[in-house]
Amino acid sequence: HPTESGFTTDVLALYDWAKARSGNSSILFWGHSLGTGIATNAARKLQEERGVQVDAVVLESPYTNIREAAAHIPITTIYRQFPGFGYLILDSLALGDMYFRSDENVKVLACPLLILHAEDDAVLPPHLGRKLFETARSTYKDKTKVKFITFPEKLGLGHDYISFNPELPALVK
């Protein structure tokens, strides 16, 4: 069964593999949607357990934590009105050891952090990305290391197409 710690361990193994072969090249963690929780977990674990900072973390369409994300995704809209929604749906993630607490992880990170969110994201509302940014910005010692970029609705990037924006390489640089 997939687990949060298993995902994190896999990313750290991939990091070790890439680091051993990259020479002096920068290595960053780039997470999209659910992967943003995995990226912040891995960056935090690398920092706390090995004393190593990843060169940067990029979070595309992120959320604060999996419980809050599940409470806001459109598919749960109809179920929110029923008694027991919190216990049956939201708490079941915790029972499976799935927390993905990016909001807690960014409080201890010190590497550059870039958060990207499209205003027309219909899966994870942009306010979750903004809330994550505000949490990080309030705790980072060097505030210049935390950036938040939104993409206007008129671009039609939604949840899945930020990577298609031709300006993205320049923005990440």
TrEMBL record:
Residues 6-70 form the Serine aminopeptidase S33 domain. GO terms for biological process: monoacylglycerol catabolic process; phosphatidylserine catabolic process. SUPFAM superfamilies: alpha/beta-Hydrolases. InterPro entries: AB_hydrolase_fold, Hydrolase_4. One of its GO terms (molecular function) is monoacylglycerol lipase activity. It comes from the Eukaryota. GO terms for cellular component: endoplasmic reticulum membrane. PANTHER family: ALPHA/BETA HYDROLASE DOMAIN-CONTAINING PROTEIN, PROTEIN ABHD12B. This is ABD12 lipase. It comes from Pluvianellus socialis (Magellanic plover). The gene is Abhd12_1.
